[in-house]
Design brief:
The chain has 504 residues and is mainly alpha-helical. It is built from 19 helices and 2 strands. Strands 1-2 form a two-stranded antiparallel sheet. Helix 11 crosses helix 12 and helix 12 crosses helix 13 (257-272). The termini are far apart. Residues 1-17, 312-317, 349-357, 373-411 and 495-504 have low confidence and may be disordered.
Length: 504
């Protein structure tokens, strides 16, 4: 079998999609990656994800043009080759035929595409350099602001993380099929076939049209050979250079006149469009995004801020739950609960002030105390016991009005043991509090006594020191007096000796 027959075999060029790979007992489908699979079909061109989210065609076209212009300007500042910038723009167009402009920021995706394209074309750049260049371009658009270098703060770290995630998302959506066939070399080769490669103006004009066509969706709709023929055709018409027409020169390269007219019209429309306004497009996208989020929350039964919405009649809402479990009221239709409710309605309302205890617990405790009082009054048979019970319970209960123990057991609440236990625990806590208070008082009294003792000691020491000082002063005075008397006596004796000598 010759090499030409192997190359021209259709099974090797494009395998059947129905065939698969048998691994073990399971049959897996093949993944077919080729340049032809990068061309977007007409069904996806008519209804893009951005259009499905409510974005009109004109705004989407402006966003594509603006994103490609950012990539071109950033590539020039990063000193990337034209092939890398062209690859980044084609990846940008391909990604936004799979995802929406509303859900993904086009500036972050442009950074990711140019970073990915620099790796594909073997001229990698750092993510920090890419972010710095886009920051510079953003400041240059707003001439009012002073150009400030990008600070390495938390915002920079967040932007870097978003760029890395966007790069992974682009690879995932494109199925890692990121190879792009550019028509740059094909243009030069076709002009050599037409013997027009010496005309530098024709070559440069066709090259410029091709670079401008990167801002449109031409590179995801047609093959590279057809785009090269359209750029040569447009440049020859603009410069009025005749090309072979019988037969038409583009038929030699497999292009049709309809495709050439479509590419030329799409490219020439760029020059008649107004320059897209960055801030206006951002506001439009943000408006659509907020509207989309509100519709999504409304369909889920949530408020615009994401909190659960309260339903009027019917339907369950988590926001209607009470904050405290004590306030939950569960309807109980058991006979015991009915008897308890009737008994609570008959009892008088208590006037005891609230001390941080629940009202239901207080009423239950009071009911338990009343039950115990009624028991003691009903069991007392002698008048003496009745008098003592009346005196102890302020004369509100009598043996005639109290029910019998059997009736009392029938009307007894099932919550009494639990309430008694709570009452005991509250009494024990009160006793413990009283003990603590008494201990603290005794400690304070002992501390005051100790302070008085220290004060008395200091006072006594002060008095003793003052008395010692007075005694010393008296001794020094007496000594000084004795010294003065001695000096007077000595002077008198000395004068008497002098007189005696003079007399002699």
């Amino acid at each position: 079998m010759s090499l030409i027959s192997i190359i021209s075999s259709p099974n090797l060029i494009k395998p059947s999609l129905n065939e698969g790979i048998l691994i073990g007992d399971k049959h897996y489908s093949e993944v077919y990656l080729a340049i032809d699979s990068s061309i977007v079909p007409e069904e996806r061109l008519s209804s893009t994800p951005s259009m499905l989210d409510g974005l009109d065609l004109e705004t989407e076209t402006d966003l594509r043009i603006l994103g490609c212009e950012l990539i071109q300007s950033a590539g020039i500042l990063l000193r990337l080759p034209q092939v890398a910038m062209a690859t980044a723009q084609v990846l940008f167009h391909r990604f936004y035929y799979s995802k929406s402009f509303i859900k993904h920021n086009f500036e972050i995706v442009a950074m990711a595409c140019i970073n990915l394209a620099s790796k594909i074309e073997e001229c990698p750049r750092r993510v920090r350099d890419v972010i710095n260049v886009f920051h510079h371009l953003k400041q240059s658009r707003d001439r009012r602001r002073s150009r400030i270098p990008l600070a390495l703060d938390q915002g920079y770290i967040n932007t870097k993380g978003q760029v890395i995630k966007a790069e992974r998302r682009v690879l995932k959506e494109l199925g890692f099929c990121v190879h792009v066939k550019h028509p740059h070399k094909i243009v030069v080769m076709y002009l050599q076939v037409l013997e027009c490669e010496k005309n530098q103006m024709l070559v440069q004009t066709a090259w410029n049209y091709m670079n401008d066509a990167l801002r449109t969706n031409v590179f995801v709709r047609f093959e590279a050979e057809t785009i090269a023929c359209a750029c040569i055709y447009l440049a020859a018409r603009a410069l009025q250079i005749p090309l072979p027409t019988q037969p038409a020169w583009y038929l030699l390269f497999g292009a049709t006149e309809e495709d050439l007219n479509d590419i030329c019209i799409t490219t020439l429309k760029l020059y008649s469009r107004k320059k897209p306004n960055y801030e206006k497009l951002e506001r439009e996208v943000e408006k659509k995004r907020l509207f989309l989020e509100e519709a999504k929350n409304k369909s889920k039964g949530l408020n615009p801020n994401g909190t659960p919405a309260l339903s009027g009649t019917g339907g369950f809402s988590p926001a209607s739950k009470p904050c405290s479990p004590r306030e939950v009221k569960v309807e109980d239709n058991s006979p015991v609960s009915k008897v308890q409710k009737e008994y609570e309605e008959k009892q008088p309302v208590s006037k005891i002030p609230s001390n941080g205890v629940n009202k239901d617990v207080k009423e239950a405790l009071q009911n338990g105390q009343k039950h115990s009082k009624s028991r003691s009054s009903s069991r007392s048979r002698s008048p003496h016991r009745q008098v003592t019970s009346r005196g102890s319970h302020s004369g509100t209960y009598s043996s005639h009005s109290s029910p019998s123990p059997r009736q009392h057991k029938a009307q007894r609440s099932p919550l009494l043991p639990h309430l008694k236990a709570e009452h005991r625990s509250s009494e024990t806590s009160r006793h413990s509090i009283k003990r603590r208070r008494s201990r603290s008082r005794s400690r304070s009294v002992s501390q005051d006594r100790g302070r008085d003792r220290d004060y008395q000691k200091r006072k006594h020491e002060h008095r003793s020191s003052s008395s010692r000082g007075h005694h010393r002063d008296r001794q020094e005075r007496s000594r000084s007096r004795e010294r003065g008397q001695r000096s007077k006596h000595h002077s008198r004796s000395h004068s008497s000796h002098g007189h005696s000598r003079h007399r002699r």
